[in-house]
Amino acid sequence: xxxxxxxxxxxxxxxxxxxxxxxxxxxxxxxxxxxxxxxxxxxxxxxxxxxxxxxxxxxxxxxxxxxxxxxxxxxxxxxxxxxxxxxxxxxxxxxxxxxxxxxxxxxxxxxxxxxxxxxxxxxxxxxxxxxxxxxxxxxxxxxxxxxxxxxxxxxxxxxxxxxxxxxxxxxxxxxxxxxxxxxxxxxxxxxxxxxxxxxxxxxxxxxxxxxxxxxxxxxxxxxxxxxxxxxxxxxxxxxxxxxxxxxxxxxxxxxxxxxxxxxxxxxxxxxxxxxxxxxxxxxxxxxxxxxxxxxxxxxxxxxxxxxxxxxxxxxxxxxxxxxxxxxxxxxxxx
Length: 334
Fold this sequence. Notes:
334 residues, alpha+beta, Rossmann fold, Protein Transport Mog1p, Chain A, 2 domains, eight-stranded antiparallel beta sheet, seven-stranded mixed beta sheet, 31% helix, disordered N terminus
């Protein structure tokens, strides 16, 4: 059973999960690109414009990595979570165009070629899978359409990324008794995946800190009574003071440091990203932090996540901490 939703000026084909459909398998930060070899450079140019985010660790690490395969090999990769099929012309001798024409109904192929080239298909071959079909007349027309549709496409892949990673983190096992203890002691809590342990739990210093090794990950919750941050300048001052005060031996680097307004769950506040560095050893890596005021507990919170994984990928690990951080909630005042 399928229901058709019109999206991006064309439509979104949403396949409702059916019996016997396998779970998608593969890296969540990998994009499988089904495109002709001669279209590889153009495909990368198009996808770089849609999936442009980069994590600095400090060396750049793209959020999503593209892997181009032959369109005829779709059956080999059809259960991967992220599939993208690309046609840049009407040439049926081009394997990418042949594949796209086979995938789409006749009217859809014609309409997308003439109008909006982007079609998102959810769960066509497997559960928790997104397939993007790009069906344009030329590279130029597709690049022009990205200005209007790129964010919506990116957000669909991001939504699936979070859903799949949340399933990995929380569906197998959680430390639910520990979660209850945190709520009782501090008036807030979060979902704590199996494998994380408490590094520090102090009412006196207003710190709740969990971590995991191999690779090294920290997630720290700090709070102060009342609203102590009123604007972005105070938020930056509070942020830069945090690592020195809590950890003593690390600081935030000026390189790639960025602070901007954000919504953290239902709270308005600031999101801080950048690099941390040790004051004692040659160590460092990326971090994400959030700060906001909660009126129920009358506290200003600072949530900090960092990774130390030298010589290896860091993006998924940092995003996992971010997902865990976003399970944060406070005890209802009633």
